[in-house]
């Protein structure tokens, strides 16, 4: 049995459904991220685990015990919010000590533990400062220490890095992962930032409209997306709407063009599909050759230097522009207005079924 189990959880607010029949198992020590666009139900799931909301249907088991209706303050959870939520009139140390004081822990234990936690979050010298004397990143470290102080069985993090600037976000993200691994803490993290999810998680639950679209390791979410939504929400992508021509031969029709894809086992002729190709899987050629499986002709419209690579925007017809990421050394060869061929292998094409309801 998993450490934390959510079984057939739904949450309705009046007539609207925030969470729609979700079943999730989280292992002890696992870092699971709920990733999805605004309003897909991520925070509602976290709040049900924390005990701030009660599911309309379904139950939650922690370590084999049903905690579905247990009060929030009786659950062994630590929570970190986007807004830090530190007590402004208390020093960093007093904030960290807060939960331990409520637990009536001995004074010398609290003192020792505060020092340990300040050290753990890299703020050993700042225990006496008040929140307004700390930067946003430092306040969030204190909030993390405060959540860990009560030795929770599960750490819940709701977009904890969203309010921070890019540099601090990356360094604190690495710190969160280091601390979680060091403590072997079970963690559930909510974000709409795919890079954060990919870099932090053991597994990601990609969510849309109250449902989990795919639950998988980050590498699989990126390389083997199972739904059109997961393929387009995570990572940059080129998307072609098409129709399966031959599933056995791996052939799809996209407008006037035929694209070679890997043989399709789950799809049939005439199925509507979305074909997704990552920009780093496309190479540019100056002449038409199908050695690589697919070759589309187009004209370079835009060239953007992005640091580690250069992104080319290539127009292939009136409605379609394809992006291709190429090494900077090659970029100088390609100029705006130049005709080129985009080559990509059948294996680079992720072919996803397109439901009639997919926008
Ligand atoms: P965000 O990233 O914007 O925080 P989210 O994925 O965390 O979004 P939730 O906050 O879980 O989404 O909200 C899911 C849906 O439930 C939304 O449509 C939201 O408006 C609705 N909702 C959430 N809380 C309540 C509430 N207390 N009363 C009514 N509707 C609510």
UniProtKB/TrEMBL annotation:
Keywords: ATP-binding, Cell membrane, Membrane, Nucleotide-binding, Translocase, Transport
Record-linked Pfam families: ABC_tran, TOBE_2
Cellular component GO terms, alphabetical: ATP-binding cassette (ABC) transporter complex
InterPro entries: AAA+_ATPase (IPR003593), ABC_SmlMolc_Importer (IPR050093), ABC_transporter-like_ATP-bd (IPR003439), ABC_transporter-like_CS (IPR017871), Mo/tungstate-bd_C_term_dom (IPR008995), P-loop_NTPase (IPR027417), PotA-like (IPR005893), Transp-assoc_OB_typ2 (IPR013611)
UniProt superkingdom: Bacteria
GO aspect biological process, one term: quaternary ammonium group transport
Molecular-function GO term, any one: ATP binding
Residues passing through the membrane, by range: none
PROSITE patterns the UniProt entry points to: ABC_TRANSPORTER_1, ABC_TRANSPORTER_2
Domain ABC transporter: 4-234
Reactions this protein catalyses: ATP + H2O + polyamine-[polyamine-binding protein]Side 1 = ADP + phosphate + polyamineSide 2 + [polyamine-binding protein]Side 1
Record-linked NCBIfam families: potA (TIGR01187)
PANTHER family (UniProt xref): SPERMIDINE/PUTRESCINE IMPORT ATP-BINDING PROTEIN POTA, SPERMIDINE_PUTRESCINE IMPORT ATP-BINDING PROTEIN POTA
Subunit and partners: The complex is composed of two ATP-binding proteins (PotA), two transmembrane proteins (PotB and PotC) and a solute-binding protein (PotD).
Protein purpose: Part of the ABC transporter complex PotABCD involved in spermidine/putrescine import. Responsible for energy coupling to the transport system.
Family the UniProt entry places it in: Belongs to the ABC transporter superfamily. Spermidine/putrescine importer (TC 3.A.1.11.1) family.
UniProt name for this protein: Spermidine/putrescine import ATP-binding protein PotA
UniProt source species: Ktedonospora formicarum
UniProt lineage: Bacteria, Bacillati, Chloroflexota, Ktedonobacteria, Ktedonobacterales
Gene from which this protein is expressed: potA
């Amino acid at each position: 049995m998993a450490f934390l189990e959510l079984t057939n959880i739904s949450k309705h607010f009046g007539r609207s459904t925030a969470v729609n029949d979700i079943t999730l198992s989280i292992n002890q020590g696992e870092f699971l991220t709920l990733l999805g666009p605004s309003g897909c139900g991520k925070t509602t799931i976290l709040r049900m685990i924390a005990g701030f909301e009660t599911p309309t249907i379904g139950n939650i088991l922690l370590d084999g015990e049903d905690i579905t209706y247990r009060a929030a303050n009786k659950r062994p959870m630590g929570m970190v919010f986007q807004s830090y939520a530190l007590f402004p009139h208390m020093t960093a140390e007093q904030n960290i000590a807060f939960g331990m004081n409520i637990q009536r822990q001995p004074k010398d234990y609290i003192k020792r533990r505060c020092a340990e936690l300040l050290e753990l979050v890299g703020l050993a010298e700042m225990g006496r400062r008040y929140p307004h004397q700390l930067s946003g990143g430092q306040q969030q470290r204190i909030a993390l220490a405060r959540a860990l102080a009560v030795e929770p069985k599960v750490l819940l993090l709701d977009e904890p890095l969203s309010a921070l600037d890019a540099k601090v976000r990356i360094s604190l993200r690495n710190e969160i992962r280091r601390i979680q691994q060091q403590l072997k803490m079970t963690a559930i993290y909510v974000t709409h930032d795919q890079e954060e999810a990919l870099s932090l998680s053991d597994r990601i639950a990609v969510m849309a409209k109250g449902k989990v679209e795919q639950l998988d390791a980050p590498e699989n979410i990126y390389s083997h997306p199972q739904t059109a939504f997961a393929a387009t929400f995570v990572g940059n992508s080129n998307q072609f709407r098409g129709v399966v021509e031959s599933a056995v031969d791996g052939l799809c029709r996209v407008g006037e063009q035929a694209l070679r894809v890997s043989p399709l086992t789950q799809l049939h002729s005439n199925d509507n599909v979305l074909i997704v190709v990552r920009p780093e899987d496309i190479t540019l050629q100056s002449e038409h050759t199908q050695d690589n499986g697919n070759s589309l002709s187009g004209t370079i419209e835009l060239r953007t230097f992005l640091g580690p690579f250069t992104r080319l925007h290539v127009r292939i017809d009136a409605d379609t522009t394809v992006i291709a990421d190429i090494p900077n050394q090659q970029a100088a060869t390609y100029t705006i207005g130049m005709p080129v061929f985009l080559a990509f292998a059948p294996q680079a094409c992720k072919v996803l079924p397109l439901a009639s309801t997919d926008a």
